Amino acid sequence: MIIAAGFEGRTIAVFGLARSGIATVRSLAAGGARVLAWDDSQGRRADAQAVGLPLENLYDADWSEISALVLSPGVPLTHPEPHALVKLAQAAGAAVIGDIEIFFRTVRASRANARIVGITGTNGKSTTTALVGHMVEECGGRVAVGGNIGTAVLELEPPRDGLVYVIELSSYQIDLAPSLAPDVAILINITPDHIDRHGSLEHYAEVKANIFARQTRGQTAICGIDDELSADICTTLTARHEATVVPVSVGQTVGKSIYVVDGTLYDSTDLAIIKVGDLHGLRTLAGAHNWQNAAMAYAAGRALGFDREPILHSFRHFPGLAHRMEIVAEHNHVRFVNDSKGTNADATRHALAAYRNIFWIVGGKAKEGGIESLEALFPHVARAYLIGESSDDFAVMLEGKVPYARCGTLDVAVPQAARDARAATGDLKIVMLSPACASFDQYPNFEVRGDAFRRLVQSLVKDWEGAPA
């Protein structure tokens, strides 16, 4: 656990008692703060009391005594309007911050030579965070990975010399971290998202750009340039002449940058253009979107001082991230890919673009537009297997374009897709769950859906392996 520094003797309110909220209460209390904790959920209040955390109703608290409100990232800060407790805090002159702000202040106050890599973006940030963490470890560094992925930041190990923190940051978390200035900051991309929480796409982009706002000389800003908003941010950063700016592109040849063209990674940040290596063979980083993630991770590795070949070697041994184009099994030229995180058409687009000869398991609780926008990628699909409540609508969309079978549930779709793939010709056949839908018609979340797919595949492959040749 990281013990919060700089809050000694102050009264701090914490609102939101999920895992990161509980970690925040413990960190602040261990650091000598008086903590007032509350959650609107009766169940979470009961869970907090069960682990010994004292509660106080913040709606009735004396805000004149409170120095700061630590807000759960899921609670509205500005849009559609500030939460009632945010208004109380602001009226009392109390700072409104998040656990990332406490983490950053504490690491800097420690005087330890620990470095922070902060990673954000609309898409790809979890894979990039996991990949950077894996890379640091494979290159011989000591790493702690957390934030919006996995472990709450205040549950990570305390700062010490040589430690590299790799932190995934959502726009909500950045909005609550006014002192944030990572040693290496990464913005992968910006596409429309969370507009309900930020009011407009432009404000969403401004919040994302704040990952760079307080960086200074000696720090590194790694910025994607393949979408207009990110490219504009990169241009602004370059004009500031503060942090070292590294543009990253997939598809564009750009001077003084890291870029990928035709699956080959290039480094032109120095005087010469270096051909770093071929990314086509990276099984767990298939597709142009993963090449972007790899390019971002490579840029971070160079900023941290690692050599090129160990970085590329670490990519070859990256195990991948669960439910994100996760290879769960491969047998007799049939590869099973769990992309349960593909909960909308835009996410599934990347998965379909990465492979051909796909036996595609698709469906669930459909999002607006369904799969109509994926039509250009239908030639990559050998056959589709429809599950969930979207089956009727998707059948209409696929009719005459892609052969399909109505399966209803995963336990029907997986063996049928596997049999068809096994009987098909080709050097590599892909049985892929990438539903382009939410899971809520049949599963509580995409993780449970992906776990079900993995279990079905592993049982099936076990039977294949035990069958006579």
Q: How are the SSEs ordered, and which strands pair?
A:
Blueprint: E1 11-15, H1 19-30, E2 34-38, H2 42-50, E3 66-71, H3 84-92, E4 95-97, H4 99-109, E5 115-120, H5 125-138, E6 142-147, E7 163-168, H6 171-175, E8 184-187, H7 195-198, H8 201-209, E9 220-224, H9 228-240, E10 244-250, E11 258-261, E12 264-267, E13 274-278, H10 288-303, H11 308-316, E14 326-331, E15 334-338, H12 345-354, E16 358-362, E17 365-366, E18 381-387, H13 391-398, E19 404-408, H14 410-423, E20 429-433, E21 437-438, H15 446-466
Parallel strand pairs: 1-2, 1-3, 3-4, 5-7, 5-8, 6-7, 8-9, 9-10, 10-11, 15-20, 16-18, 16-20, 18-19
Antiparallel strand pairs: 11-12, 12-13, 14-15, 17-21
Helix pairs in contact: 5-10, 5-11, 10-11, 14-15
What this model shows, in words?
There is one protein chain. This protein is an alpha/beta fold. It folds into three domains: 87 residues, 3-Layer(aba) Sandwich (Rossmann fold), CATH 3.40.50; 217 residues, Mur-like, catalytic domain (UDP-N-acetylmuramoyl-L-alanine:D-glutamate ligase), CATH 3.40.1190.10; 138 residues, Mur ligase, C-terminal domain (Protein-Tyrosine Phosphatase, Chain A, Alpha-Beta Complex), CATH 3.90.190.20. The chain contains 15 helices and 21 strands. The strands form four sheets. A nine-stranded mixed β-sheet has the order 6-7-5-8-9-10-11-12-13, with helices on both faces. Strand 14 and strand 15 form a beta hairpin. Helix 5 crosses helix 10. The model has no long low-confidence stretch (mean pLDDT 95).
